[in-house]
Amino acid sequence: MKLVIIGAGSSYTPELIHGLTQHHEALPFSQVCLMDIDERRLEILAGLSQRMLGKAGLSITVTATTDRRRALEGATFVNCLIRVGGMDARILDERIPLKYGVVGQETTGPGGMMKALRTIPVMLDLARDAVEVCPQAWLVNYTNPSGIVAEALGKHSAVRFVGLCSGPQGWIAAILDRMGVDPLRANVDWVGLNHLGFAIRVWVDGQDVTAQAIEAVADHWSVNAEWLRALGVIPASYLRYYYHRTQVVQEASAPGARTRGEQVKEIEAELLRQYADPHLADKPPLLAQRGGGGYSDVAFAAMRAIHYNTGERQIVQVLNQGAVDGLPDDGSVEVPCLVDRTGPHPLRMGALPLPIRGLVQAVKAYESLTVQAAVEGSKRVAMQAAMAHPLVPSWEVAKPLLEELLAANRPWLPWVV
Ligand code: G6P
């Protein structure tokens, strides 16, 4: 079995290699191939990967290449961790909207839209290569905005893929932890879009305990407790960017405030310095300061379910196909799925509760327009997408904001003139 990591120069790669050491009995990969366009980072990560696997006593061959098609040869699973434009582009995604009083965030709002526009063409190229070179392989995608990327892959490629995020697993664990409930007794209907998901029903021992779950987390959540009780469902922490947008913009615009990308750039530089140390053979504690902890558990769970055809229930991103009422069949959603050798199959979740329905529908429309803008290379559709986004208040704001964002992204968007 061959595991390919595209974008393996990512500082998250040790998380995945750690997963290999933890899950090797269940998923006995014999080869891991690291691919990146950045030779220096590739060399550092290949060295650390070798040391980590060696320390774990695993005879897994590690190879490294900058040639994507060569990397894909003979792949069983392809994990993707790319960041088109690197951390500097993320910083612009987060900074520019703030100038216009709009939330600036990696995956949410107009910043997330820019990340999608940069990323979708590269993901579709990767998918095309995978279909040609390793048609049996599964693409496990973590690259953000992963929900929008999932929709692009589902609509515009034949690749077999599963869209992942470590978020739902973390939020559900936090809810059950606050309730003091063993996860094995619980089931959570986590429904919505990536970074726009909600625990709409919480079950323990077959009983609906959603009201108790809300009470258990109310004073510890990322949205206001009074609002959480009124809302009646438990949102992903990213809903803070919608429900508390004024406060978010104020805090981020305060003198001296740094964006998350600015912070992560520093963490990454230090991580790479540590990774290059020939004595390091573990994932360092500093990696926990990145947001994607737990990613390898989610990735290995999905790969295991596919490889062994288990039909396990997992929350992943998939085309809706009627799972959630009122959303397009070919739009991506993040819902509980049964995952087997033919991939994820969404469970029917029915209608979204009215207090969240309109928001999810609006963001879905924005996401679908963003996919269309990226694929067609259309500024007109990009403007439709920006105006459809609930965080963009008006044409007067949208027009100059989008112009500035597109100009900043010209190096990745040949259609922007
Ligand atoms: C969470 C999100 C991921 C995101 C990450 C960002 O895990 O679910 O989608 O990539 O945080 O972490 P960072 O350290 O880059 O801010």
- Taking Cα atoms only, what radius of gyration do you get, to the nearest Å? 21 Å
Low-pLDDT segments: none
List SSEs in N-to-C order: EHEHEHEHHEHEHEEEHHEHHHHEEEHHH
Largest beta sheet: strand ordering? 3-2-1-4-5-6
Terminal Cα span: 45 Å
Bound heterogens, unique: 6-O-phosphono-alpha-D-glucopyranose
Main beta-sheet strand count, sense and barrel state: 6 strands, parallel
Name the helicity range: 40-55%
The mean pLDDT is 97
Shape: globular
Alpha-beta classification? alpha/beta
Number of strands: 13
In DSSP terms (H or I, runs of 4 or more residues), the helix count works out at 16
Strand content: 15-25%
Nutshell version of this structure?
Helices cover 48% and strands 17% of the residues. It is α/β, with parallel strands linked by helices.
Write the layout of secondary structure elements.
Blueprint lengths: L1 E5 L6 H10 L8 E5 L3 H17 L5 E5 L2 H5 L4 E4 L5 H14 L9 H25 L4 E4 L4 H11 L3 E4 L3 H13 L6 E8 L2 E9 L2 E2 L1 H8 L7 H7 L2 E2 L4 H4 L1 H9 L6 H16 L19 H13 L4 E8 L12 E9 L2 E4 L7 H23 L2 H10 L6 H14 L9
Parallel strand pairs: 1-2, 1-4, 2-3, 4-5, 5-6
Antiparallel strand pairs: 7-8, 8-9, 8-10, 11-12, 12-13
The site of 6-O-phosphono-alpha-D-glucopyranose (G6P) has 9 residues, from helix 12.
